Amino acid sequence: MQLASPPAPPAGPDSAADRPDLALGQPQGWRERLAAWRDRRMADPAFRTWVLRTPLLRRVAQRRARQTFDLVAGFVYSQVLRACMELELFERLAGGPVQPAALARAVGLDEAALDRLLAAGVALKLLRWRAGGRIALGPLGAPLVGHTAIAALVEHHHALYADLADPVGLLRGPAGRPATSRQWPYTVHARPDSLAAEQVATYSGIMSASQPLIAQLVLDAYPVQRHRLMMDVGGGEGAFLRAVARQAPGLRLRLFDLPAVADRARQRFAEHGLAGRAEAVGGSFLSDSLPGGADLISLVRVVHDHDDATVRHLLRAAHAALPPGGTLLIAEPMSETPGAEAMGDAYFGLYLLAMGQGRPRSPATLRALLAEAGFVQIRQLATHLPLQTGLMVARVPGHEAAA
Ligand SMILES: C[S@@+](CC[C@H](N)C(=O)[O-])C[C@H]1O[C@@H](n2cnc3c(N)ncnc32)[C@H](O)[C@@H]1O
Predict the structure, then answer these.
(1) pLDDT less than 50: residues of the chain
(2) How many angstroms is it from 302 CA to the middle of ligand 1?
(3) Which atom in ligand 1 lies closest to the alpha carbon of residue 305?
(4) Is 37 a domain residue?
(5) What CATH number is associated with residue 131?
(6) pLDDT at position 280, please?
(7) Is 354 part of a structural domain of the chain?
(8) Measured between alpha carbons, how far is 25 from 35 in angstroms, rounded to an integer?
(9) Which Gene Ontology biological process is one annotated for this entry (predicted)?
(10) Whose CA is nearest to atom 4 of ligand 1?
């Protein structure tokens, strides 16, 4: 096998003279020099062609190209998923493979249009072809049958999708209010505790529907049953506490959220026969102190919604409400999570920007904020799916430590 020698490196834009606006520095140390050399080569089309023609390097080049094109085309893949969900294809195929013509009639699309969607769905492993030209669930579509949590997330993305049509505009600060922030009115309202029932209904419904993505992961990672009274702050409609109630029958439960949200939680607790065991307290952690008495406080998908000043205030309030030895849990997707960096830093980073406040935080950042608020024994607990939630546990100093 004869290998062609690689083309000479291009004269890339690697000097400060080429980009005077950036005042580029020289690479420091051999690692940076090597990386700079490699980056210059990778930026050269002739070098990339040579790599593709070289058997031993081709696989790496193909994988990199696929990753790049996934980034280029990812928004289309998301919309293919959305179309499948809007047309309820996964539920329609749950009973087994069907003929595309029958499916086209059922969803009200002409056959050619449906064929195009089916081909896209097959390519994305949402669907798969079966003998006789029938279409069936694929490996990624099968778990989505009746998956109301994913359905709620996909459906509510229409706002984020609109905001991201101009990502640089979003980063610069959009002229108007991003559509995403309108979905979360507490992020922009001066007095969130005065939000009315109809203003909290949509986001509370989305949170409740998507809570199953989180609850069991948290409960598998932390034994809540060792506590007496758990207070879930920013607990929404109580979906998390309902899962806790099933797991820990002896635990008393309290939810704290904005008054209009707490009303919804109270109603849900009554519907689920929990009225005698779970109470819902309305208030704002921005202006009210948190009720005392709980030996465990949870903040589930709450901290990342807020800027650092509010988080400092909230953690101090949680510390003040807990007894000596009391425990605080923080559960949310975290940045810099190995294997889930894209979810924490790309998805939530941009999502929270469009929402108008908050940021994804790394375990190290949360640890520092918790320590500043006076917590000790701060630990990160592993969850089975850190992509969906990470978990931090911390204690108030004192003799009553439960563990
Ligand atoms: C992203 S949702 C998470 C809901 C729930 N913990 C879950 O994971 O499904 C954030 C929650 O914090 C509540 N919240 C926001 N600002 C608040 C405040 N100032 N005081 C009390 N609750 C607040 C919202 O009403 C909402 O229910």
Answers:
(1) 1-2, 12-14, 16, 402-403
(2) 6
(3) 1
(4) no
(5) 1.10.10.10
(6) 98
(7) yes
(8) 14
(9) methylation
(10) 236
